[in-house]
Amino acid sequence: MQIKDRLIVALDVTEREKALELVEMLHDCCGMFKIGLEPFCIFGPTFVEEIQDRGGKVFLDLKFHDIPRTVAQAGRAAARLGVEMFNVHIAGGSEMMKAVVEAVREETAGKKQAKILGVTVLTSLGADELTRDLGIDRSPLEQVIFWAQEAKECGLSGVVASPREISAIREHCGRDFLIVTPGIRPAGFESGDQKRISTPGDAVRSGVDYIVVGRPILQAQDPRQAALDIVREMEEAIR
Ligand SMILES: O=c1ccn([C@@H]2O[C@H](COP(=O)(O)O)[C@@H](O)[C@H]2O)c(=O)[nH]1
């Protein structure tokens, strides 16, 4: 895998033409495109195929969170779309996670299987919000480790967490457990609604598998150059 393959671009845009233009512009300088709630609700599931037709791989970031049967059935549908990865909230519980793992295994028997990631503590939440809004007294780091271990026990391939927790997840869950981190901000770019952030270089130095970047690329005057700059920073971090 080349270092550029570890960059996932979040296609958080509202116009289909603009999204497809970005796919054409960026597919050779990143590894995957993330389709989240905004583009999926606007463009629908056929948008996944449109990206795949242009040579792009897809991370479907719909963060399923429901009862076990519902999430298992949604997971089957996601797997049928041929996405590389999709995710579920670990807060949905172990029965839910085991149900979706089993459903995807059945659905894709003998074929390449979509990786299932568990969403830990959203990168937009800091320690105060975790306690005040969610009633969780652990620190974000402790909660992420607790959930990451649970996700691993249930058979998930990895987790979505903030770059601040990368090394602790590695330590507790091992080298083969995937770590995908949004909350990435090149130096000088505003954090916006993200609370637990770091630079692309720091994330790579901490041992991340994939970084997810949206606004720092989408809002750049030259999105391709912004993506290339991020890849260069990642390269320099592993030298
Ligand atoms: O904890 C999470 C989980 C998912 N996201 C998603 O990642 C991108 C980040 O976009 P930026 O513009 O680079 O902040 C966005 O699509 C989120 O829905 C996350 O940020 N944090």
UniProtKB/TrEMBL annotation:
Q: In which pathway does it act?
A: Pyrimidine metabolism; UMP biosynthesis via de novo pathway; UMP from orotate: step 2/2
Subunit info here reads: Homodimer.
Specify the domain of life of the species encoding this protein: Bacteria
Which InterPro entries does the entry mention? Aldolase_TIM, OMPdecase, OMPdecase_AS, OMPdecase_bac, OMPdeCOase_dom, RibuloseP-bd_barrel
Enumerate the Gene Ontology biological process terms.
'de novo' pyrimidine nucleobase biosynthetic process; 'de novo' UMP biosynthetic process
SMART domains documented for this protein: OMPdecase
Q: Which reaction does it catalyse?
A: orotidine 5'-phosphate + H(+) = UMP + CO2
Name recorded for this polypeptide: Orotidine 5'-phosphate decarboxylase
Q: Which principal EC class is assigned to this enzyme?
A: lyase
- Family membership: Belongs to the OMP decarboxylase family. Type 1 subfamily.
Q: Which UniProt keywords apply?
A: Decarboxylase, Lyase, Pyrimidine biosynthesis
Pfam hit, one: OMPdecase
Q: Which NCBIfam families match?
A: PRK00230.1, pyrF
